[in-house]
Amino acid sequence: MALPRRRSAPRECGFAAHRAGVERLLDSYRAIPADATVRLAKKTSNLFRARAEPTAPGLDVSGLTTVIAVDAQNRTADVAGMCTYEDLVAATLPYGLAPLVVPQLKTITLGGAVTGLGIESTSFRNGLPHESVLEMDVLTGSGEIVTATPDGDHSALFWGFPNSYGTLGYATRLKIRLEPVLPYVALRHLRFHDLDSMQQAMDEIASDRSYDGVDVHYLDGVVFSESESYLTLGIQTAATGPVSDYRSGSEIYYRSIQHDGNAPKTDRLTIHDYLWRWDTDWFWCSRAFGTQNPRIRRFWPTKYRRSSFYWKLVALDRKYDIADRLEARKGNPPRERVVQDVEVPIENTASFLRWFLDEVPIEPLWLCPLRLREPAPPGADAARPWPLYPLEPKRTYVNIGFWSSVPVVAGEPEGATNRAIEHKVTHFDGHKSLYSDAYYTEAEFSELYGGERSAELKKRYDPHSRLSTMYAKAVLRK
């Protein structure tokens, strides 16, 4: 199956519609009272941390949801900030192109992945989503739209924008690099019986970008227990042949990884289905809704097997406290939500995993190695190119994702398990993403997330404090 080709969308039409969307955005900014915090008027979110209820109108981003233009010849795309990766991939795949990093869930927006963090199985060779940005237009806290580039007048904003979570402004347009892709992805699932062997193999593959003499284009993994972990190696291919379907059938992708043999288990997916392989069951989190029960799954409509629908179920649970009410009826304590992604240096991965598996009753865990892209764009700080999430160049890290809940233990402080994880991640020289609950002190937070640089950028781009601070937004939930 060859990827279909098409002509580039009319650039003038795309940019004209985008300009109209930007004008609506600016009008909505002007309508927000001067003493009110500026926020997005956005009903959906991929954040798991609690958010304060808005007390004023928000920014109208309804005109900033599209792919503005694809330049197939130069392998770039101009994209509105609130465009979802589902729509972005749908626009680029017909050209045989894809974003350098496609986060796992369809409703993640490009602007969200850049001002927050995104990661996927290309991150060991392509870094994080913000590293594919060539330039971006940002609505700052002062109500001005500026164009930030690596070495222009607003280069400080370009480098400081990632991990700022809307505290410096919101991206209205991003120009990003694309890479060529083939129609299929052939997979090899390698099983490991101990974490140290798995860590060593992942380190070698991430560094060499190959395994057993064959190039590796995609790399991630799953840990089920200390004695059962897997690395999944993907290679792009144009060769035709049978493919698996984990969207509409009864099979579940993460269960397909498991096997008992020493030889790798193989599989094939279309490039589209590979990019969204985790979205169908929200990794493995759909089991909380019964979707993985065969008797329920057979009647669960395919169109509702996606992360956006599961988000609606989570919203209902939050609104009506359904899960804790059910636990109380069983005589069980309420549960603490433990939904986090953390990065630790690869040499500390096995040690962190052993601690986690011993102390936190959550499995499976997702693994995704990453390295910052080389060479960095001109103007980068050689030691800390992205100061608000300061990963070291030429060093391999592993993202470890875990998304579930644990019973609350009477007498322990709020967020006891999350606090313990934070301390252990810091102990192992790591960081965690800020899309979920955080409990750092202000001093700890400043040390980990570029406090001095963040303060400097706030003074320049949000001089009247129209936007929240990083600490208030990520920890105080304001």
Average pLDDT metric? 93
Distance between the termini: 49 Å
The CATH class name of the domain at 11-180 reads Alpha Beta
What percentage of amino acids are in beta strands?
15-25%
Output the keywords.
478 residues; alpha+beta; Uridine Diphospho-n-acetylenolpyruvylglucosamine Reductase, domain 3; eight-stranded antiparallel sheet; 16 helices; 16 strands; globular
3D structure, described in words:
Helices cover 29% and strands 22% of the residues. The chain has helices spanning 11-31, 85-92, 110-115, 123-126, 155-160, 195-208, 253-256, 271-275, 294-297, 307-320, 322-329, 349-359, 416-427, 442-448, 451-461, 470-474; strands spanning 67-71, 76-80, 97-99, 133-140, 145-148, 169-180, 184-192, 210-211, 214-215, 218-225, 228-237, 265-270, 335-345, 365-370, 397-407, 431-432. The strands form three sheets. Strands 12-7-11-10-14-15-13-16 form an eight-stranded antiparallel beta sheet. It has a domain at 11-180: Uridine Diphospho-n-acetylenolpyruvylglucosamine Reductase, domain 3 (2-Layer Sandwich). The mean pLDDT is 93. The N and C termini lie far apart (49 Å). It is globular and about 60 Å long. It is α+β, with helices and mostly antiparallel strands and 478 residues long.
Give the gist of this structure.
This protein is an alpha+beta fold.
